[in-house]
Amino acid sequence: MGVEVDVKEQGPAGQESAPLARVGEALADFCERYFPDAFVFALCAVIIVFLGGLALGEKPLKLVQVFGEGFWVLIPFTMQMALIIIGGFVVASSPPIARLIAWLAGVPKTPRGAVAFVALLAMLTSLISWGLSLIFTGLLVREVVRRVPRIDYRAIGAAAYLGLGAVWALGLSSSAALLQNTKGSIPPALLPITGVIPLTQTIFLWQSLVLAAILIGVSVAVAYFSCPSPEKAKTAEDMGITFEPLEVTAEAPKTPADRLESSPVLSVVIAILMIAYIIFLFVQKGALAATDLNTFNFIFLTAGLLLHWRPGAFLKAVGKSVPATAGVLIQFPFYAGIFGLIAKTAINPFLADLFVRLTSHGTYPILVGIYSAVLGLFVPSGGGKWVVEAPYVMAAANTLHVHLGWVVQIYNAAEALPNLVNPFWMLPLMGILNCRARDLAGYSILQLLFHIPVVLFLCWLLAKTLPYLPPSGF
Predict the structure, then answer these.
(1) Does residue 248 lie within any of the structural domains?
(2) What is the pLDDT of residues 412-422, one digit of tens each?
(3) Distance between CA atoms of 155 and 105, rounded to whole angstroms?
(4) Hey, CA dihedral for 224, 229, 235, 239, is it positive or negative?
(5) Rounded to an integer, what distance in angstroms lies between the CA atom of residue 68 and that of residue 387?
(6) By C-alpha distance, which of 364, 342, 346 is closest to 355?
(7) Which of 57, 113, 176, 411 has the most neighbouring CB atoms within 10 Å?
(8) What is the pLDDT of residues 87-96, one digit of tens each?
(9) What is the DSSP string of 63-92?
(10) Lowest model confidence (mean pLDDT) among 39-53, 159-173, 457-471
């Protein structure tokens, strides 16, 4: 049966989608030659923003100063992002989830079906956690390419990245929505402008759910029809990449120390303590109000501890996850420096003034979407960038009477767009797939060409269905 399907993909039915597949192949080939690695991209961004500050009349010494001072300001946030990756990896690599991944890898039977299947799972899991999405689908790709012959490794790798490039910020790990949901997390100067915005007015709006569903449908369709035919595919083997099956067994303990590390007693006791705290937190604050980045990481580490069952297995999983955090740990300070260059110089008021002057009630959703996407090329941080944007973006929304919660969702949908170009958030996935940003970028850029008009149109259209609510809860 599998052979028959493969033959059909190469036949006349497959030829109908050849133009889109050829575009994907051409973009992938171009990016393999010219797309820079993530760190090079970060360094170029520093130079561009620095030159922008000079063009606006800032003195070089001040730009140097704010860059250096900003370098370390996002260290706590960097740690949170690293822990999201670690928590996602620990959960996704646990024996129960590894068995689930192995089973799921047997579902698709053809290259095109496998790419669409991975794309769908990448986006669905990203609505729970972007860290889980990257790791889960990365490990799924490793299993799928072992089972499905002649699958294009670049296409399926880019499909695994779609959670970060499409809908993650519309889900439960949305940094901006979680920040606005918690009064203590909102900067004091921002609170009077935005107020506290509950999750029911951001990620749980029916308009937001419709936006996410449409983006998922579009993304899966593009992934399916752009997948190269088997004879034109560039496989993992062609790229010199091979993978072993996921390990789900553990060695028998040999020493007293090994037995202590292999005993589930400590893991269970500590997990019960952690679960008790989570319950206490939810009862005290309410589940939605208590859901912030720290709580999210706490839940995933608790789940990882239970799923691995033994301290030694949990620690080994953490050790395997650390290489995937390397890019975040070393590059985030440079992006924090860019944050300082924008927030503490003439660049910030220039952008704010330009944005307000160009905006009207009708064009606001489109312009804020474009602005958020462009700024995301230079500051790829959902939460950190929101703190920079929110003061003037939300002030304009108040003036124009635009629903504040929907502004957050416009930001969230648009914020994901530059992820399809900026290789920063590809880093954890690249570590798992043993590939480079240029290997994924071609098919990611192809997705971007479809996402831009869809996101901007829906953000504009759905804004018309929501009334303005003044800031509250402060």
Answers:
(1) no
(2) 999 899 888 87
(3) 16
(4) negative
(5) 19
(6) 364
(7) 411
(8) 888 888 888 9
(9) HHHHHHHHTTTTHHHHHHHHHHHHHHHHHH
(10) 39-53
Phi, psi torsion values for 197, nearest 5 degrees: -115, 110
DSSP assignments along 332-360, one per residue: HHHHHHHHHHHHTSTHHHHHHHHHHHH--
Task: Give the list of residues 6+ apart from residue 126 with CB closer than 8 angstroms, or none.
Answer: 132, 133, 162, 163, 164, 166, 167, 168, 171, 173
**What is the extent of the structural domain holding 408?**
19-238+258-463
CA angle 158, 452, 30 (to 5 degrees): 45
Closest CA to 83 of 126, 131, 128: 131
pLDDT value for 289: 64
As a residue count, the chain comes to 474
Residue 436 DSSP code: -
Residue linked to tokens 């240029």:
438
Q: Is the pTM of this model over 0.85?
A: no
Domain count, the chain: 1
pLDDT of residue 45: 80
Place of tokens 């309410």: 286
Indicate whether 396 belongs to any domain: yes
**Positive or negative: CA dihedral 395, 396, 400, 403:** negative
The Cα–Cα gap between 469 and 387 comes to: 21
Contact 125, 118 (CB under 8 A): no
Task: Indicate whether 60 belongs to any domain.
Answer: yes
In whole angstroms, give the CA distance from residue 141 to residue 144: 5
* Separation CA 372–CA 413 (nearest Å): 9
Q: Which own/partner contact pairs does 64-70 have at CB distance under 8 Å and 24+ positions apart?
A: 66/340, 66/341, 66/344, 66/345, 67/337, 67/338, 67/340, 67/341, 68/337, 68/340, 69/340, 69/344, 70/336, 70/337, 70/338, 70/339, 70/340, 70/341, 70/343, 70/344
Distance CA 369, CA 182 (A): 24
Mean pLDDT score of the chain: 83
Q: Which of 384, 313, 265, 337 is nearest to 94 (CA)?
A: 313
What digits encode the pLDDT tens for the residues 108-147? 999 999 999 999 999 999 998 887 788 889 889 999 998 9
Residue at 76 is within a domain: yes
Enter the tokens of residue 339. 């944050």
Task: Say what the alpha-carbon torsion angle 191, 193, 197, 202 is, to the nearest 10 degrees.
Answer: -140
The answer to whether residues 364 and 411 touch, using CB atoms and an 8 Å cutoff, is no
Q: Which amino acid is at 84?
A: I
Please tell me the distance from the alpha carbon of residue 409 to that of residue 388, in angstroms, as a whole number. Answer: 16
